[in-house]
């Protein structure tokens, strides 16, 4: 069985190659390997402007790039806590109509005075599980954790200058006890940060000779990393962010070709449909805007699994206008670390003014405002019977 060629990470020779593993030459070697094995020519995969030596920590077996088209939508007008003013939003997608739809929603909200955005909570978790000889020992341990929280917090924070342990939730089943460590993580998404900090704290806890402890695992799957859970929706994972807008009735009719009353009625039908289906969201397509921004801005795209769950809410105001809000309870984003520093991703973040220190809440608010615009646009397209025709116009790449 032939192995994928690799070099050394430091440029010194290895048994497989004397080349640096993160180099244009090593990437070309791998593309040639694929061609020899499959006959496929990776011509476009091998065309890129990023420097391979910037990639350690982001990719292994670097071979090339997947180029996803980016479109700009905007201006998106936001009146937020961290995000204020006009923004031109980079969206990476291969789905025709998507950028046009979000752009239409942004025009509607801009002419209505903008989108109000607020980050209302912030937490990143790791949830180890402790197994005891019986439920009484587990209960006693839970009381000990509560009594010694400050000591546990100090130990956890020894591993990070940024992460802060906010609190520890406890969940008990049989003789098991899960501890859900909640951290704030500055401008990082923080999954690796909180894993390291939680492990360090738990090692200290185990050194205290906990009575009746039989087993420990750093993750007991209660943090539900990169998958949806109602626990995250209730208690927050990443950023909990709200976006709101009030659309004047005349603008709704002139720009979206439907009335607030018709859109409100459709919202109630959509709520019932989501309820019947057991959906994790009563919205139309949170994942579209979030994914497009995640790819463009260097976010961990797997976090769309939890980030795209959310809630919409609407009202007809006393004067007949349309109030609409979206809440994203578990938006996992970063303005520093991970893929944010890569060349094209950094450029997109800089376009939004979100790269680096102090940018994460601003990015969260921009994403939430973008999602709101997409929900308004798609909802109106369904009501006005423009959904299919718009896809026929913009979403077909076949003759």
From TrEMBL:
Q: Where does the record place Low complexity bias?
A: 7-21
Q: Gene3D superfamilies recorded for this chain? A: 3-hydroxy-3-methylglutaryl-coenzyme A Reductase, Chain A, domain 2 (3.90.770.10), Hydroxymethylglutaryl-CoA reductase, class I/II, NAD/NADP-binding domain (3.30.70.420)
Give one Pfam hit by family name: HMG-CoA_red
At the top level, the lineage of the source is Bacteria
Q: What EC designation does it have?
A: 1.1.1.34
Any GO molecular function: hydroxymethylglutaryl-CoA reductase (NADPH) activity
The cross-references to CDD domains, in alphabetical order and at most eight, read:
HMG-CoA_reductase_classI (cd00643)
Q: Where is this region: Disordered?
A: 1-24
PROSITE patterns with a match to the protein in the record: HMG_COA_REDUCTASE_4
Alphabetically ordered keywords of this record? NADP, Oxidoreductase
The Gene Ontology biological process annotation of the record reads:
coenzyme A metabolic process; isoprenoid biosynthetic process
By sequence similarity, the record places it as follows: Belongs to the HMG-CoA reductase family.
Q: What is this protein called?
A: hydroxymethylglutaryl-CoA reductase (NADPH)
């Amino acid at each position: 069985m032939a192995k994928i060629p690799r070099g050394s990470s430091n440029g010194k020779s290895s048994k497989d190659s004397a080349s640096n593993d993160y180099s244009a030459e090593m990437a070309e070697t791998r593309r040639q390997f694929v061609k020899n094995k499959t006959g496929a020519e990776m011509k476009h995969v091998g065309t890129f402007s990023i420097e391979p030596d910037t990639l350690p920590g982001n990719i292994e077996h670097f071979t090339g790039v997947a180029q996803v088209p980016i479109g700009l939508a905007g201006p998106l007008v936001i009146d937020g806590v961290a995000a204020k003013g006009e923004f031109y939003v980079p969206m990476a997608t291969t789905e025709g109509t998507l950028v046009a739809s979000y752009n239409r929603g942004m025009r509607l909200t801009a002419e209505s005075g903008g989108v109000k955005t607020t980050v209302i909570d912030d937490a990143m978790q790791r949830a180890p599980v402790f197994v005891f000889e019986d439920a009484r020992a587990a209960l006693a341990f839970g009381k000990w954790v509560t009594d010694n929280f400050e000591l546990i917090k100090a130990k956890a924070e020894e591993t990070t200058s940024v992460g802060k342990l906010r609190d520890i939730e406890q969940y008990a089943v049989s003789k098991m006890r899960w501890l859900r460590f909640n951290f704030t993580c500055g401008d990082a998404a923080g999954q690796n940060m909180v894993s390291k900090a939680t492990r360090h704290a738990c090692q200290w806890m185990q050194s205290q000779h906990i009575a009746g402890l039989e087993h420990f695992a750093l993750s007991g799957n209660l943090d539900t990393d990169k998958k949806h859970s109602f626990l995250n929706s209730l208690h927050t994972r990443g950023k909990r962010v709200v976006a709101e807008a009030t659309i004047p009735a005349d603008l709704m009719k002139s720009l979206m070709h439907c009335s607030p009353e018709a859109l409100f009625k459709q919202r109630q039908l959509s709520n019932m449909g989501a309820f019947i289906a057991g959906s994790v969201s009563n919205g139309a397509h949170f994942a579209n805007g979030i994914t497009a921004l995640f790819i463009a801005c260097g976010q961990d795209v797997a976090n769309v699994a939890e980030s795209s769950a959310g809630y919409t809410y609407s009202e007809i105001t006393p004067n007949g206008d349309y109030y609409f809000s979206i809440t994203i309870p578990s938006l996992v984003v970063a303005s520093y670390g991970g893929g944010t520093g890569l060349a094209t991703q950094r450029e997109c973040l800089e376009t939004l003014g979100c790269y680096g220190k102090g940018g994460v809440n601003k990015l969260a608010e921009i994403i939430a405002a973008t999602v709101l615009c997409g929900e308004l646009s798609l909802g109106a397209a369904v009501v006005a019977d423009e959904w299919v025709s718009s896809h026929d116009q913009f979403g077909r790449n076949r003759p």
